Structures are given as structure tokens and as C-alpha cells.
């Protein structure tokens, strides 16, 4: 088991990335996208870290990049388009180092939107969307095996909007009770939902 902090070459410059590798018994790759760069989103976001830690516990190499303009990543915010390219660049880098491994894409809020678009290119084994901001962004064509987890009292991305979107596409949808967009005081429940729902 090991942790690496790298600066991966991307289309707008270096992409700061943290990789948690469980070791030789690893099951696959998990690429995790953080919330909106202009609203404090980063790879250190507590929800993103919870997703990463949970997938790591399940045996996946957990990869958390900072989008362009965040932390030590170079470039500037690009309305989601450049951020999709950032994720594709990180995937190209890590998949070359862990070849032939199943892929999970996961994202929180804005990061969930980005990952729906990325999934159109990479066709992951699983797509995990936490608090997807379906009211703010035009979501990509997520695959049928998508899992959506939402806070019951989400004040940023209304729960009913996410529920309706998930129902229209036949996605698994789960609610973490008595919490907000950032799963305040409910991160352990979020982890349990991921463990129960993700067929990893």
C-alpha cells in the first residue's frame, strides 16, 4: 500500500494528482472528480476523500486529480470542457501504469457532471455519482449501470431533480437521510451506501 503525489502532463499544463495504491491485490482503477473549482472544490474535499478512501478499501487504486487552476494544477477553469480533458489525460497516464484494469469513474457535484461526459469516452465498469448537480449542468449520457447517491436535504442540487433524472435513465438512486449537499456529519453513512451499492 502506498500514496503518491504526482504532477501529470495535461492539455493545460501539469495536473496535481494523488494516487492511493492498495498494492499487488488491486482490483482496478477508480478515478474521482472533485466539486466546482470556483467554489472551493479540490482533491482534498471531504466527500471526494471519502469516496476515494471507500474505493481504496474495496481494493481499487484511488486517483484524485485537481482540475486545472486548483492547487498545484496549472491552467484556468474551462466551464467543464477542459476539465473533461484533464480527467482523460490523467486516465491515460494511470491506465498505462496499471494496464488492463477495470475502471470506476466517480464524481461529486460538478465532478459528477464531468464524469458523465468522461464516461462517454471511457465506458467504465461502474459510474458513481454523488450529489450530481443535474440542475446546473447538461449531464452526459451516463451508462445504465450508474449509481447515484444524494443528500436528503441537498440545498445546491435539489434531491427531487436528481431523483427524477436518475429515474428517467433507470439508474440506482439512494438517499442519505438528514444531510445536505456536503453530507455534513453523514460521511460514514455515505461510505456505507457506497459499500452496499457498488458491485465492485
State the main characteristics.
single chain; 200 residues; alpha/beta; Rossmann fold; 8-stranded mixed sheet; 5 helices; 8 strands
Major sheet strand order: 1-2-4-3-5-6-7-8
Rough outline: globular
Number of continuous helical runs: 5
Q: Please indicate the percent range of residues in DSSP E strands (runs of 2 or more).
A: 25-35%
Total beta-strand segments: 8
The percent range for helix content is 25-40%
Q: If classified by CATH, what would the architecture be? A: 3-Layer(aba) Sandwich
The N- to C-terminal Cα distance equals 19 Å
Low confidence ranges: none
User: SSE order, as H and E?
Assistant: EEEHEHEHEEHEH
What is the CATH third-level topology name?
A: Rossmann fold
Domain count:
1
Q: What is the CATH level 1 assignment?
A: Alpha Beta
Q: How would you portray this structure in words?
A:
- This protein is α/β, with parallel strands linked by helices and 200 residues long.
- The protein has a single domain, classed as 3-Layer(aba) Sandwich (Rossmann fold).
- It has five helices and eight strands.
- An eight-stranded mixed beta sheet has the order 1-2-4-3-5-6-7-8, sandwiched between helices.
- The mean pLDDT is 97.
Amino acid at each position: 500500500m502506498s500514496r503518491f503525489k504526482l504532477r501529470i502532463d495535461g492539455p493545460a499544463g501539469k495536473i496535481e494528482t494523488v494516487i492511493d495504491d492498495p498494492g499487488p491485490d488491486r482490483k482496478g482503477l477508480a478515478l474521482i472528480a472533485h466539486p466546482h473549482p470556483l467554489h472551493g472544490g479540490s482533491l482534498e474535499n471531504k466527500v471526494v476523500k471519502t469516496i476515494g478512501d471507500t474505493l481504496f478499501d474495496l481494493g481499487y487504486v484511488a486517483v484524485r486529480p485537481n482540475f486545472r487552476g486548483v492547487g498545484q494544477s496549472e491552467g484556468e477553469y474551462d466551464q467543464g470542457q477542459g476539465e473533461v480533458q484533464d480527467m482523460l489525460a490523467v486516465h491515460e497516464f494511470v491506465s498505462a501504469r496499471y494496464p488492463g484494469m477495470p475502471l470506476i469513474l466517480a464524481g461529486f457535484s460538478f465532478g459528477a457532471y464531468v464524469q458523465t461526459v468522461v464516461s462517454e469516452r471511457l465506458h467504465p465498469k461502474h459510474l458513481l455519482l454523488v450529489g450530481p448537480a443535474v440542475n446546473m449542468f447538461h449531464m452526459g449520457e451516463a451508462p445504465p449501470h450508474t449509481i447515484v447517491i444524494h443528500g436528503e436535504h441537498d440545498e445546491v442540487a435539489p434531491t427531487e431533480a436528481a431523483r427524477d433524472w436518475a429515474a428517467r435513465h433507470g439508474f440506482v438512486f439512494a438517499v442519505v437521510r438528514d444531510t445536505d449537499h456536503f453530507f455534513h456529519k453523514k460521511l460514514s453513512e455515505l461510505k456505507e451506501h457506497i459499500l452496499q451499492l457498488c458491485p465492485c
